[in-house]
Amino acid sequence: xxxxxxxxxxxxxxxxxxxxxxxxxxxxxxxxxxALKAFRERRGDGALAVPTLxxxxxxxxTWRVRxxxxxxxxxCLGTAGLVVALARPRVGLERTESWTEGIDIVIxxxxxxxxxxxxxxxxxRFFVARTEARRFVEGRPNDRLALLTFAxxxxxVVPLTTDRAMLLERMADLKLGEQGDGTAIGMALGNALxxxxxxxxxxxxxxxVTDGANNAGEIDPDxxxxxxxxxxxxxxxxxxxxxxxxxxxxxxxxxxxTGRVTERRVLANVDVDxxxxxxxxxxxxxxxxxxxxxxxxxxxFQAIDRLEKSRIQTTTYTRWREIYHxxxxxxxxxxxxxxxLAAFAFPVTPR
Length: 351
Hints:
There is one protein chain. This protein is an alpha/beta fold. It has helices at about 5-10, 30-45, 65, 70-85, 125-140, 165-170, 185-195, 220-230, 275-285, 295-305, 325-345, and strands at about 15-20, 90-100, 105-110, 145-150, 155-160, 205-210, 235-240, 245-255, 260-270, 290, 310-320. The chain has two domains: about 5-95 and about 320-345, no CATH class; about 100-310, Rossmann fold (3-Layer(aba) Sandwich), CATH 3.40.50. The protein is about 40% helix and about 25% strand. Helix 4 (about 70-85) packs antiparallel against helix 11, helix 7 packs parallel to helix 8 (about 220-230) and helix 8 (about 220-230) packs parallel to helix 9 (about 275-285).
């Protein structure tokens, strides 16, 4: 209705549109008709006054006189409704669809024994890393994500999926020590690349979270990084853990005499191989982050989230439901009533 003057467009509710809005210009005929009738009425007031009929002026007007404009008013109302019906009013029922370019992300989470270090108070490194990974997943509703854990071995927990509920449920069940001893960073990268190799996504990412140095596995991390670069996979490496000396780590130990398993706490240095993680990130076009406390780890995942944003495109489809009949039928009835009244109740008599 952009072609209509604002004074006409404002008469209709905002959710209503017209298929042929230019026909609404015909509504301007009604004010002209009303003005013309008023002009003719005023001209009639100049009729010759007859003194002998002065007593008629004091007589009470009949109902016909009082309602003499009713047929005209009804005709104007019916005509207005007819014009609105001819303009084909309709109501739009909208449906919005959105899609994304697609980012496939694999989260590789270190589940070695050293991740039990309790320098990330009030919990250990693994608990905080898993919590922040959950928040990261919850904030990526438009991407496919996969999850794997690693220590001396690497295991795919969830392949690439859009099922957030299932992935979060499996993530909540993760435990330390299920993948043996050691830290096989190269194996973790190789496993992640195997998940991403069939992907047709325009952007492929690995988020590698670890607190140690590569000391297990048959795949060299630098070789895995070179393969990632060839496949167009960016790797964001995250080194977690304090850099302030030995940390307390709970260790499960079995008494050789009784066979009972007890937990002991030992102090140990866990050195993060910053140079290796930086090298992997540089080789693949990603970034290296160092998180020495829970706040730093949270900020790291937030930074990765900002760096890897999906580009979402939204398309709105509108299905129209025409309602011209809702104006046409009442208008026809009103015009018919106006015609009947004009013909029988208020007949036009010559002057």
